[in-house]
Amino acid sequence: MFVRTASARDLAAVRALLVETWHATYDPIYGVDRVTEITEDWHSPAALRGRLTQPRSEFILADDGQSLGGVAFASADDDGRVVTLHQLYVLPAMQGRGIGGMLLDEIVASFPQARRLVLEVEAANFPAIAFYQAHGFSLVGRTQHCGKEGSGIPALVYARALA
Questions:
Q1: Do the beta carbons of residue 112 and residue 121 sit within 8 Å?
Q2: Which of 29, 48, 81, 123 is the most buried (most CB within 10 A)?
Q3: Strand, coil or helix: what is 51?
Q4: The pTM is what?
Q5: Phi, psi of 119 (to 5 degrees)
Q6: E strand map for the chain
Q7: Using one digit for the tens of pLDDT, what is the confidence trace for 6-26?
Q8: Confidence bin at 150 (pLDDT 50/70/90)
Q9: How far apart are CA 115 and CA 111, in angstroms?
Q10: Which of 120, 18, 126, 7 lies closest to 69 in space, CA to CA?
Q11: Strand partners, 20
């Protein structure tokens, strides 16, 4: 696997990866219908296309030359000191192979001015919490609107200091 920047030609494959990963991860928590509703909104072609041109952001993929294994998207605040990791997903069949760590390392390297990396994670997503804790993140708070304002999805907020 290698990490590269996402492009418009990748969006259908990115969407398929996100839909598969979300259903595998969140169907037991929210149910199939709610996960489908969320993925239709958050992972629509238009939503993904908007990430390609968002200022102060990185939209990256783990690719083996034939298929995608993971995706990450992060953006920095106006002064570049705080970066929010909006997404880091690895296909279920590819988890445990270091892909998530590669994506996370590339996100950190992409924001050299950053001093803090923050993210939100579903409290019942124990594998993701373990991953982030193993990569130096600590619990710093909670939100009632994970992903986007008004979502009504509670989540834990984790952060990690950067050099």
A1: no
A2: 48
A3: helix
A4: 0.94
A5: -155, 165
A6: 2-5, 57-63, 68-76, 82-90, 116-121, 138-143, 155-161
A7: 999 999 999 999 999 999 999
A8: confident
A9: 9
A10: 18
A11: none
